[in-house]
From TrEMBL, chains A, B:
Gene3D superfamilies (UniProt xref): Tetracycline Repressor, domain 2
InterPro entries attached to this UniProt entry: Homeodomain-like_sf, HTH_TetR, Tet_transcr_reg_TetR-rel_C_sf, YxaF_TetR_C
Organism per entry: Couchioplanes caeruleus subsp. caeruleus
Highest classification ranks of the organism: Bacteria, Bacillati, Actinomycetota, Actinomycetes, Micromonosporales
Entry keyword Signal: no
Ranges for domain HTH tetR-type: 5-65
Keywords from the UniProt entry: DNA-binding, Transcription, Transcription regulation
PROSITE patterns, per the entry: HTH_TETR_2 (PS50977)
Pfam families, per database record: TetR_C_13_2, TetR_N
Record GO terms (molecular function): DNA binding
Residue ranges flagged as DNA-binding region: 28-47
The protein's name in its UniProt record: Transcriptional regulator
Length: 188, 188
DNA sequence: GTCTATACAGGGATAGAC
DNA sequence: GTCTATCCCTGTATAGAC
């Protein structure tokens, strides 16, 4: 029924949000159940273990980012314009980034420390961006260094997110994004 | 007595290591006690709460980094040489960075999500580096942009650490450090 | 200073009624 | 599909003997 589906998706949505804001381990079933307004018992009808929820959240994030990249391709006619969209993420999401960092980077960091089985899965979001950025740089005629450039752009984004989170400094984000955007012109 | 002092310092050392490798929240008293080879009960003679251990670890890290910067000032006669030392950290510590990321950045990220009282204290290590790098850039004659350059260098370091941790790619670290080192020559 | 024993809370997970 | 009740384990923290 539609009811079950709706509940399942509500759980994933709430878990996604809470994992981002509080971290995976720190988020309890009780907290997710409360957010969705269901009992803890009901919870287990939809997900057998906490790891299952994590896997579902990662799958949802992956799908969501894929859709985002498709939107960008529809909106931005040039590869450089698309790369610039990526560079601007910390600015676009500045409120959340300052409070909670980057959802992808912070989850990867946490799962690495937990030695969690889903570490590789979580990083597939990074790989999605990496491949996509590589393609954009290749389209700009930089095939041989496209992957290195892609990694460079993602690293920039992660560094900005981590420091913006630590210092809660919006001006810093603006400066860095501006600088990275200028850097990109050399490859257009 | 020397015995108590030694135990206390052993606890701090073990906690530091475990917080780095497993994360703060994920590290239990039992794990630290086992590492130091003392009973959990004895533990509480030295530290009343887990937060107290965290505070002690942060203080120890701060002191250790201060000593490191002093060593660099003794070893490297030029400000650029000193900045380069900082840029090379991800390479110098590449084994740990690939496995556990940056100790400063990952702790800051975790404490932000936990909304932990020691968040600001943990970030004082970032501030130490920021101030020190700013001074080095000022010595190079870039007073007006010294702080922005300092933040840029720290952000670079954090981005490299996060991605090196996610992808476990040593070649990536080499490339990025080389590139950042070349970037620095424009300011020498 | 170090130990054992134990209290207590919270979190993951299950059973079974409705 | 959703609920209540409950089990069990782990983790923090305390009490008190040695």
């Amino acid at each position: 029924m539609g009811g079950a589906r709706a509940t399942r998706e509500q759980i994933i949505e709430a878990a996604d949000r809470l994992f981002y804001r509080q971290g995976y381990e720190h988020t309890s079933f009780a907290a997710i159940a409360e957010a969705v307004q269901i009992s803890r018992g009901n919870f287990y009808y939809h997900f057998k273990t906490k790891d299952d929820i994590l896997a579902a959240v990662i799958t949802a994030r992956l799908a969501e980012r894929r859709r985002m990249l498709e939107r960008w391709e529809a909106e931005e006619p040039t590869p450089a314009g698309r790369i610039r969209k990526y560079i601007e993420i910390p600015l676009t999401n500045r409120a959340d980034v300052q409070m909670y960092g980057c959802p992808v980077g912070t989850l990867s960091t946490e799962l690495a420390k937990l030695n969690h089985a889903s570490f590789a899965e979580a990083n597939s979001v990074f790989t999605l961006f990496r491949t996509w950025l590589r393609d954009q740089f290749a389209l700009l005629g930089h095939e041989s260094e496209a992957d290195a450039l892609a990694m460079h752009v993602i690293a920039f984004s992660q560094g900005v997110a981590t420091l913006a989170n630590a210092f809660r400094d919006e001006g810093f984000i603006w400066r860095e994004v501006k600088q990275m955007s200028d850097w990109l012109t050399a490859y257009e």
